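In pairs, describe these two lines:
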Amino acid sequence: MGVSERWYRNLETGMRVPLSTEVLERLSQALLLGPDERMALYGHALAGAGGQSDEDEGPPDFMDELAVLASAQTEFPSYLTDRAWNVLDHNAAMAHWFPWVREPGANLMRWALTTATAREQIVDWPRHAVQYLALLRFALVTRPDDEDLTALRDAVLDAPVCRGLWDRSPKVLAYRHGHRYELRLPHVSPETITVTSQVLLPAYRQELRYVLLLPTEGSPHGHGP
């Protein structure tokens, strides 16, 4: 990496060391990091170094406009979550597909990883659980002092199956944008529904996520033959 022995010793003992973008790039290359791992490294190393804070909320009515967008009457389920996957708003289609979003304190990550319903409704649940845990790990790396995320991690890892998956895979994942998966929702369709998640980040509040679940062609509720 082209750093001194003293620099490396300071890093190992927990002292602050200069982490310029050039140093981070050399580290990323040395460790053969993928795109999500690079994002996690940069987010952890540069957190608080002039980045946009959660308190910078943009225009005064910004959150109201996001809520209108999330609850818009479309044929596809959509929802809005915060950095800890708390559901802030959703549309009628989302509530029809997943009635749990109406519950006080609804949390997408907690539902997906800790409930028997999710394990029944998400086809090949263990594979997707690894990805949800990778999303949570990424959030914790980039926001290590966030109490909501820490509490969510503790609640999720209380489930032995999640603890086992967490310990076996150190993967990090920034977003599930464009991810395709299958759902069993007999109250919506007698057939398995294949959807693709589209994740949009508001410009002023990129810790928020606006997500659309788009059924694929040929799937029930999808377009095409």
User: Anything to note?
Assistant: The first helix runs from residue 5 to 12. The beta strands are 78-81, 87-90, 179-183, 193-200, 209-215.
